[in-house]
Amino acid sequence: MEQICRTCMTNSVALVDIFTDQREPSLAAMLCECVASIKINLNDELPQKMCLSCICDIQTAFAFKRRLKYQRRTHMYCWALSIIYKRSKKHAK
């Protein structure tokens, strides 16, 4: 089972261990953050590696999710500032 990608289940020669690769965050952490419904454990019975195609996919999904989170925080911050500004103008009258 070691030569099978954990996410797409295809056989591949180029596989990367999701727990020991040097990315920060790790591939396992990216999977957990992007797909909340799956549990990732080091000692589970599933393959511990991912193919390069799936790695590209999870990195893209992870970057997209982080960008959405950042934009939402920025939007909420701007919205809160506009409310504060409107209230301060209202009280200044």
Q: What can you tell me about this protein's structure?
A:
This protein has 93 residues and is mainly alpha-helical. The protein has a domain at 15-68. The protein has 2 helices and 2 strands. A two-stranded antiparallel ribbon has the order 1-2. The longest helix is centred in the last third of the chain and has 41 residues, at 52-92. It is rod-shaped and about 70 Å long.
- The tally of helices reads 2
What percentage of amino acids are in beta strands?
5-15%
Q: Helix proportion of residues, in percent? A: 40-55%
Secondary structural class? mainly alpha
Major sheet attributes:
2 strands, antiparallel
> Overall mean pLDDT score?
85
Order of helices and strands: EHEH
Strand order within the widest beta sheet:
1-2
Terminus-to-terminus distance: 72 Å
Rg calc: 21 Å
Structure summary, number of beta strands: 2
Low-confidence stretches: none
Main features:
93 residues; mainly alpha; two-stranded antiparallel ribbon; rod-shaped
Topology:
Blueprint: E1 15-17, H1 27-34, E2 49-51, H2 52-92
Antiparallel strand pairs: 1-2
Helix pairs in contact: 1-2
Domain ZAD: 3-78
Protein name: ZAD domain-containing protein
Pfam family, one: zf-AD
Give the gist of this structure.
This protein is mainly α and 93 residues long. The chain has helices at residues 27-34, 52-92; strands at residues 15-17, 49-51. The chain has a domain at 15-68.
